[in-house]
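User: Fold both of these, please.

Assistant: Here is the first one.
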Amino acid sequence: MTDATFEDGAERPVRLIAAEADDLKVISALVQDAVLTGGDITWSRKRRQFALLINRFRWEDRDAAARMNRPVERVRAMLVIDDALAVRAAGITPGEKDVVLSLLSIEHTGGEDGSATLTLIFAGDGEIAIDVEAINLTLADVTKPYRAPSGKTPSHD
């Protein structure tokens, strides 16, 4: 079986921007169970940008895959947090290329004058907290979808 393409269906690549806390809920749901390595994480203090290259499970396609009796899919995507002021990690080491991480959610804690702390929660009690001047997060698919290697929908049983 060949990889799928966005052109095969009516769907387009995901390209979303979060500018407020409610927007983060949608993006958090779409990145749930994304996998990456520590080497897929970058932090540029000079650019005030924190970014992850993730293998995102296509939750938005799960029901269509079941209806059409075809494999579920993943897609490579960029999760970029701009206006980042500081980054703290606990339980994981960004940059470790041999460690596979599973992103579970993005949490938000509001601060003063629109500032916030965005916390990326990973399986195994790891987390990365990013202090931001304002919520400015982008999720963008950067490849065509591909068959999920496991062939299964992620489960938390």
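And the second sequence with its predicted structure:
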Amino acid sequence: MGSVKRNRPDEPEKSFFRSEFEWVRGPKLGSGGFGSVYLATVKKPKLGCEGFPTVMAVKTFSEWSEQATESSYLYLFRDCPYVIGSYGKNLTIGDDGYVKYNVFLEYADGGTIGDLIKKSGGSGLCESDVRNYTKAILSGLEYIHESGYVHCDLKPENILLVTSSSGFVPKIGDFGLAKTAMQKLTCQGTSMYLSPEAVCCRVQEQPSDIWALGCVVLRMLMGRQPWEAKHGSKLDEPEPLVASKVPNIPAWLSDDAKDFLGKCLVRDPFERSTAAELLNHQFVTKLDVVGKVEPVEEVASESSSEQYGSFIPLESWNSEEAEDFGPILPVALLNPRPVIPSTVYQRAST
């Protein structure tokens, strides 16, 4: 995918606004535990707001810390064309009289990978499309991982589709649960995509993102969830799903797909391939590649502005709430992969 500039984790955000930024809040696109996502348009694009697209998405938070987390990660990954672009942030006063913290995002006019899967009616996406989408997602993950971070909530609903001249380009979004590698935080994420070590040992590092990627690719190919609930268990309860096995890989998939999934869905995190290694796998090199895209120009602001009531009908963008599975266990790091103590891995294998 070519080399790209890496950002220093401590690099400060810069403000590019020259004057007050007026924007129009449109219909709600989705919501989750963080808040809501709306359509946003620049009210007067010709009056001091050059550089903004006509249409954006605005992610609105009730807490400043949540806005700061999201905007900081988007700023760090701003040079990666496979991470959703950010145009900055500001604050407004909501209808309830409370301050709302906003992050302006590149508008994903194609919805999400999750939307595409639902539209397939359970038949899944064609493999050539899955290969191309997977290449783009891997490119974004490689950038995130080489920068020293873990996404922690990779799933179809967090992979956004932006139209380009060559079709939809998948871009990773929603960094509300992201963390630095080896940072000791509570283990969080969406149950269906949690790795065995995350469920059994509260360890969530870069190999956990690779496991989640395998689940995402499997879901794209099959058109349904990667796990099948047994009698008495629920799909939102991770322990029965990943405590003792891996998702079933259908025999009808191509040899390339089965081999690729086999390198992602490995219970031992030491044995999982890295994003960089998987980018050389024939599953993502054999067919069409995703068209080249350029990172968006970021614009940032701390100025307040009013919200207006112009509405444009659009498809929905859903976001699921994350679950908390308790404190993470201490681990050590061997670059480029985190190393989990043998006592931890033994617990995951039982």
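The mean pLDDT is 75.
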